[in-house]
Each structure stands twice: as C-alpha cells, then as structure tokens.
Design brief:
The chain is built from 13 helices and 18 strands. It is an alpha+beta fold and about 475 residues long. It folds into three domains: about 105-185, Alpha-Beta Plaits (2-Layer Sandwich), CATH 3.30.70.260; about 190-290, no CATH class; about 295-470, Gcn5-related N-acetyltransferase (GNAT) (Aminopeptidase, 3-Layer(aba) Sandwich), CATH 3.40.630.
Amino acid sequence: MTDVTRTKHGRPVHHWRRDLVELAALFTAVAVADGVANLIGHGPDGTALLMISAVVLVATAAFHTWWARHHGHAPPADHTGARPLPDGRGAGPSEDTSADPEAIAGVTTLWRMRTTVKDAPGSLAVLCAALAEHQVDILSLQTHPLAEGTVDEFLLRAPGELAAADMTRAVSLAGGTETWIERADAHDLVDAPTRVLGLATRTALDAAELPLALRQLLGRCTIRSLPARSPGSGRAEEGTPVEGALEDTVMRLRAPEGGVITVERPYLPFTPTEFARARALVELDARLGPRIPRNQDVLTLPEGNAISVRRADAADVEAAKAMHERCSPRTLSMRYHGPVGDADRYLNHLLSPRFGRTLAVQTASGRVVGLGHLLWDGDETEIALLVEDDWQRRGIGAELLGRLVAMAVEAGCDSVYAVTQASNTGMVAAMRGLGLPLDYQIEEGTLVITARLDTTPVSSGLPHDEEQRGERAVRD
C-alpha cells in the first residue's frame, strides 16, 4: 500500500521526502535536456544524432505496442480500480476449487455405514484416516462392543461423485470387515440419545406406538406380535426367556400381555446394544400398562346429526360386538371375507393397540356405529373399515379412511392397502376419494387396493361441530 492511499482522518497523507525526490528528479531532467541540446546544437553530427534518436523512439514504441497485444492477459480495470470477476461472481474471498472436491462436485450425499473393526488401539484411527483421504466427513459415530471386535456405525457426508463401492473398498483396506452401507436422510442427523428419548415419549403416550418405535429404532425390519399359547395363561412362546433372546438377525422380546414380539432384519445382524435398547422400550410399555389417547373430535353429518370420532381399544369389544349384531350379513361378509359367525373372534385382535390403531365412531348416545383399523402387518400396513348399515353413505367411511391414512403418513408408512370384494363399490369410491396414487389387484373376486402415500392425504370430509372445536384432538 503506497503513501498516497493511506489516509488519516479521511484525508490522503503526503510526506516531505516524496516532494524532495520529485524536485530532485525535475532538476536532473532539466540538466540532461540542456546537455543534449548543447551536444546537438554545437556538435558536428548533431542532425544525424537527432534523426537516430527519433528512429529509436519510434521503434521502441512499436515494440511496446506489439508486446502488449500478444502477452497482455489481464482485463482492463474499471473506473473504481477493481478487476471484474469472471462468470458474474461478486466480490469476496477467492475460492480454490482445485483444493476442494465438494466445490467441484457441487453436492454431497449422506450415508449410514456399519463395519466391524478389531478391538485394538489405533484401529479406529486408521479407518477414519482412510475415509478422510476420500474427503468423507464423519458426522456421528456409535460403537457397539462385541465379544470380539467392535461394530462402528457412522453417519457420513461424502462428495456426490464418490460411490458406495469406493467407500467400502477403502474401509476394507483399512481393516473393516462385514461392511454395510446405505443412503441416509436428514432424520438420521438426530443423535442416538435424542432419538431414543423421543421414541420412549411416544411409547409412553400411546401403547400402539411400540411397534412403530421399534421399527424407527432398528431401521427396516419386520415386526410380528405372537399371542400367548392359551388365552389368559400369560405363557410366551416356548424357548423365549423373560429377558428375551437375540439370534443374529432375529430378536424375541416378551410382550407385556404375555405373548412374544419378534423382530427380524435379514440384511443386517442386530448388536447387543440394539437389543438392549429395544428391550428397554418394551419394558417401559409393560410398566405403563394399556393406554390410548382419550380425546375425541365432534363432527356434524350432512343431515345435521353430531357424531364423535375417538381412539378405541380392548375396552370397546362389547360395544363392537353389539354393532356386529346390528349389521347385515352382507356388510359383515364384505368386511371379514369369511363366515359371518366368526366376525366376533377377530375383535380382540383388531382392538388391541399392539397390532395397530383403531378409530371408533359413536353417536351422541354413546353407541358405536363405525370402526376403522390401521393394522401393522409385518412391514406393511393394512386399512379396514366397518360402518353399520343404517349409517352408511353419510361420509363416515371416507372420514375414517382419511384419518387412518393421515396416521399412516405420520407413522412413516410408504403405502397402505385395503382388502375387499370387487363388488364393494363404497370402499373403492372411498379409496379413490383420497386423491392418492392407487394400484389394483384382483384375484378370485378379492380386490386389493394399495395407496402410495406420496402426497398429503385428505384428512377430513365432515365439518367439525363449532361448539366442540376447542376440544378437537390430535388424530393419533
């Protein structure tokens, strides 16, 4: 920075030394000009010397012009003195993209990776160094100790152009074995303790949340609940101890009601740490006992009648049986796809929070006139409806269906399916009314309609009672 560009109190600063140098240069130039004039005017070759000097000056100017055109690459400065930036970029810190692979790729990808390393000092450091060589950022790390070795679970941010095979190859060369990797999303950025506490809170509020909490805790897995061998005996499946059992890709946990909860994940073995977390959630559920949210929504039917929609559980079995007695054989056969006399025996299973969620529709007098079920069927989700004959074609089925689909979306389900008869035009119309992509499969008169939950479903088709709007409950 020169003296002229420095300022003090907003004014340029000049120094007397600079003025003295400029004055000396001026006197020197005058002396040189006087000497040249004397040489040309009084010397014998003054005219020739003047012509030679002119030729040399012209040649020098021409050479300078040629050099500037062929070797000058810097763009001209604007009136402010700042060099314009290429590609329309604004002024700011310069970026060396050659040293930043992410700047070249433009995007990054989140990955979840598990690998087993030797339980020896420095083994994890070698693994981390191998990932760093590929510009992979480690966002979180969990360790799962085993009898021999340690399973390390990583959440990684990698350059977009880096393939999963390249990462697994680098990990293998660094000593990792049995490596598994899959894409992650923003939900995986939540640390493990926070995730477990959130799942425990949901389980404490609603017994139907336990299968969902286990699925979110353990990833893609199949969860099945098996009842006790005899009703009321409380005896679990033979060979399953009270504290549960872990067998590689299968874990068995004692259900609070005396049955067994089986969790399978064929693509990735469970670790003792995961088994302990799952068992803690089941023990919490057992200590709290049966529970469901007791709030309800009050709705108004088109003809003006008020109904309420609420969660139902095993305490509503008798009311559901009474509704069966008022339903016609055709309505029951469309719902249960079998002998009408066997309808009642399904209710204990359907109304148990362990197998899903149930919504009940009741009149102002408290009589149940409709049931909607959202059932956890392994790693799939089924929807089923039953509306009493005298209350059909009033919008109750569509209301139940919309609420059940909304609950499925909140639970993280990718799709839901309904099994009915091809002649059940009411169920087909209700599914189409959701406005979701539908797939149809027909086999021997049985129709399976699968709705892909890609968009926000219709949650309600009936108006809420204005007097009860303040008591409107959360749908789940």
